[in-house]
Amino acid sequence: MKILLATQKPFAAAAVNGIKDIAEKAGFEVALLEKYESEADLCAAVADADAMIIRSDKVTPAVLDAAKNLKIVVRAGAGYDNVDLAAATAHNVVVENTPGQNSNAVAELAIAMMIYMSRGQFTPAAGTEILGKKVGIQAFGNVGRLVGKKAEALGMKVYAIDPFLSAEKIKEGGAEPAESLEALYAGCDFVSVHIPATPQTIGSIGYDLISKMPKGATLVNTARKEVIDEAGLEKALEQRTDLKYITDVAPDNYAALKEKFGTRIFATPKKMGAQTAEANINAGLAAANQIVAFFKDGCTKFQVNK
Question: Does some domain include residue 302?
Fold first, then answer.
């Protein structure tokens, strides 16, 4: 059995060594494809692989067509919109993610972003404190709950909404349930976004929601770029000169927005939510263990294309 570790953005050496150790102890061969330049490179490498571990790498129908022996793809991370799930299902390929492995890293970044914007991106001007402020969490899964716990520890008041959780479950997770998405945006000094990019959520956060935010509020996005309606965001920032936006995924028009809005907007140079040594290793090792469990025991606990 051959596992292809295909990463344009490579894992840390400790993660690669750990993946190899897990795989080889289970009798699997590991092939490494790092910093590749094209889809053709990935297609050639995956041709004889039985399993594949990826990060943000795109698994397209062309890649799946080339992968004649492929049985499972594991995305080392929570999001999996870089994998064509329908095509994978059509090719009888199981797709899994590794939920929870990057959660703390993303949650810490979200809190850091709130502080960074509250302090005017560390310019000399006087900023504000987050103590006593209200934070609204849009999607209360692994990351959202950790953001809530950390925010509460810093003296913030935590509210949350999640279409898949009851009000009671949200309370059990340590947050006050918001009556509606509109109420969450209208009532919170910060809104931290943790929704996936799906047909239902793409472009769902735009002018109508953002313009409802209180005076001086900040929208924090450590999820996906696509969930933001960028035209609506720009309109809201134009009309509400007190609002701010910080994101781990730069808008397509970021340069123009930065020139127009200055320190009211910030985007990280590249997606950094999972970019910690700990998260890097955790996600990689989880992916390797899940592949071994799949072939040894038929385990598909984390399958996302059921």
Answer: no
